[in-house]
From TrEMBL:
This is Sensor histidine kinase. Residues 317-369 form the HAMP domain. Its main location: membrane. It comes from Paenibacillus silvae. PANTHER family: SENSOR HISTIDINE KINASE YPDA (PTHR34220:SF7). It comes from the Bacteria.
Length: 600
């Protein structure tokens, strides 16, 4: 029962149209999954981005706290050392009769290099100043008399109004801002009363100015990805915000800035104050902005639905139209109308089906034509077969007749003691037999030498003393190497016909086989008429791009034909060099790799 029920369900699906099936696939496999997946995905991405951003802000806060604490600790170390320096205290407590005594005492105090060693060794410290209520002092060299103007200053009043012996104070020095274009007027100083050695006769105050530009630069280098604010009593002391870093203007107030819900605040104790480290992260990326914006989210949903809908419509139209076209043509086949589909078929499976249908129709047409013409074609085929057999018999009779005739002439010459004529006829028969009965196209060098020697003997018989020849093989193992049949003979023939025969004087043809640098060198040299520069250039150019179609450009195709056959067997690793000079002769050098010549 269950298999029958499953078959019925499958048949129901088979009865639906392709368009309906595609729409069902779109709704249940695209529309609903896209909506559900997007909602879950975007919520998950938003949470991950927020967590990552918070982690980044926390790490940034840790680095800022470490750098700030390091800068302040170094400045405090300088202050503490100077605070407990007995030599320095005696120098400030002493009274001096005149400026000369003061300067002697000053240089004597500096002999320990206390100020130099602990002031200039820390980049975070910009200036160390001692304010001393001693009338015998001379202003200069980090020591200034404590007068009424200094007592009226903002920082001195702040120190006097606190119960703490040491404080950190930030203020704006308008006078320095007008005098210094580079440093500006913003100052952050560690100020303390010098009373380590108990109650003294002279009031002394130590003021250590932090290097504001250096410390502020470290916050600028913290990098992008958020805004950093170091706040003291509502004043923004340090920041990586360019608008907050105008050193020639007073400190900005944090209360003047808008609150940011994403900012992170941490309190850090600094000497007598509690500074705040405030980090504001950048806005989250486009995914979170898109989730937070209803308009963008609606646009995203529309795109997610519109694009799949458009694709489903285009694909369904492509499938339904072409399947319907094939169905209509198959209906025509039922009526014995074999029409080929001429509309574009495409390259997918339906396109392949269309091409198969067209091939089927064409084959049916051809089979119909074969039925009517089969008998006539069979008769023509039988006739062609008989003619081919007749030509094959003729091609076998003629060479046998020629070789038998040459053998008869040779035997009669032997009977008449004409040994020279008999030998020439024997060599001629050898060449003709190798030319007609081609057999294997590769022969040994020894066989090729025998062909060349037979040919040169025949030519010497023709020319007499006008032609002399020399054949030389360097090593015995060269004789067993294999090269294409009659290639060397072709070059030798060209040397005899175009070199020696065309000249009026005697000539020499030299053929040598040698091994040089892992190559077989075959040299064919003649002392004939040679070639002019134009013919030699044309022959060399054709060897750069050899082809059978270009043979018609040469008056003599033997050399090029042999070169093409060498390239067929030895690829481009075979090299043929031709050197020729008019009325002095021609030299052809063939270079074949020994490995290939040995393998054949």
């Amino acid at each position: 029962m269950k298999p029958k029920l499953a078959c019925k369900r499958i048949q129901v699906l088979d009865d639906w149209s392709l368009r309906t099936k595609l729409y069902i696939l779109f709704i249940f496999c695209v529309l609903i999954p896209v909506l559900a997946t997007n909602a879950v995905f975007y919520q998950s991405i938003k949470g991950q981005i927020e967590a990552k951003e918070q982690s980044r802000i926390n790490e940034m806060q840790q680095r800022i706290r470490f750098n700030l604490r390091n800068s302040l600790d170094n400045s405090l170390y300088v202050s503490n050392f100077l605070y407990t320096d007995a030599t320095l205290n005696r120098f400030m407590e002493s009274k001096y009769r005149n400026q000369e005594d003061y300067y002697f005492a000053y240089y004597d105090m500096l002999s320990g290099n206390n100020l130099v060693r602990y002031y200039y060794s820390y980049q975070q410290v910009n200036q160390v100043t001692f304010y001393v209520d001693n009338d015998t002092f001379v202003n200069g060299g980090n020591f200034i008399k404590l007068n009424d103007d200094i007592r009226k200053s903002e920082w001195y009043q702040a120190l006097m109004n606190t119960d703490d012996q040491m404080m950190i104070y930030s203020y704006f020095d308008k006078q320095q801002a007008e005098m210094s274009q580079s440093q500006g007027g913003r100052k952050v100083s560690i100020i303390r009363k010098l009373n380590y050695f108990g109650k003294q006769q002279v009031e002394k105050v130590l003021k250590v100015d932090l290097d504001y530009a250096f410390i502020n630069k470290s916050f600028k280098n913290e990098g992008a990805g958020g805004k950093i604010y170091i706040v003291s009593d509502d004043r923004i002391i340090f920041s990586n915000d360019a608008q907050m870093n105008q050193a020639r203007k007073p400190f900005n107030l944090m209360s003047s800035m808008e609150l940011d819900a994403s900012q992170s605040t941490e309190s850090i104790p600094v000497v007598s104050e509690n500074w705040q480290i405030i980090v504001r992260g950048e806005k989250l990326d486009f995914l979170t902005e898109m989730i937070d914006s209803r308009a963008n989210l609606l646009l995203l949903i529309i795109l997610n639905l519109l694009v799949p809908t458009l694709l489903i419509w285009l694909i369904s139209r492509s499938l339904v139209d072409r399947v319907g076209r094939i169905a209509r043509h198959l209906d025509q086949v039922k009526q014995e109308k074999f029409e080929v589909i001429t509309e574009p078929a495409g390259k997918d499976e339906i396109g392949s089906l269309t091409h198969s249908y067209n091939m089927m129709v064409v084959k049916i047409r051809n089979l119909i034509e074969i039925v009517f013409k089969g008998q006539v074609e069979r008769q023509a085929l039988e006739l062609s077969k008989k003619q081919a057999e007749l030509k094959a018999l003729q091609s076998q009779v003629n060479p046998h007749f020629m070789f038998n005739t040459l053998e008869t002439i040779r035997m009669r010459s032997l009977i008449k003691d004409e040994h020279e004529t008999s030998d020439i006829i024997q060599k001629l028969a050898l060449l003709l037999r190798q030319t007609i009965n081609w057999g294997n196209d590769l022969v040994t060098v020894q066989d090729e030498i025998r062909f060349v020697e037979s040919y040169l003997v025949i030519q010497q018989y023709r020319f007499g003393e006008k032609l002399q020849f020399v054949i030389h093989a360097g090593d015995e193992d060269i004789l067993e190497m294999r090269i294409p049949k009659l290639t060397v003979l072709t070059f030798v023939e060209n040397a005899c016909i175009h070199g020696i025969e065309g000249g009026s004087s005697d000539g020499v043809v030299e053929v040598s086989f040698q091994k040089q640098q892992e190559q077989l060198h075959i040299v064919i040299r003649d002392t004939g008429v040679g070639m002019d520069e134009d013919k030699l250039s044309m022959l060399r150019n054709m060897m750069l791009d050899p082809s059978l179609e270009r043979l018609s450009e040469l008056s003599s195709i033997g050399v090029m034909n042999a070169f093409i056959r060498l390239r067929m067997y030895f690829d481009e690793r075979v090299q043929v060099h031709i050197v020729s000079e008019r009325y002095k002769g021609t030299t052809i050098r063939i270079e074949i790799p020994l490995v290939q010549a040995s393998q054949g």
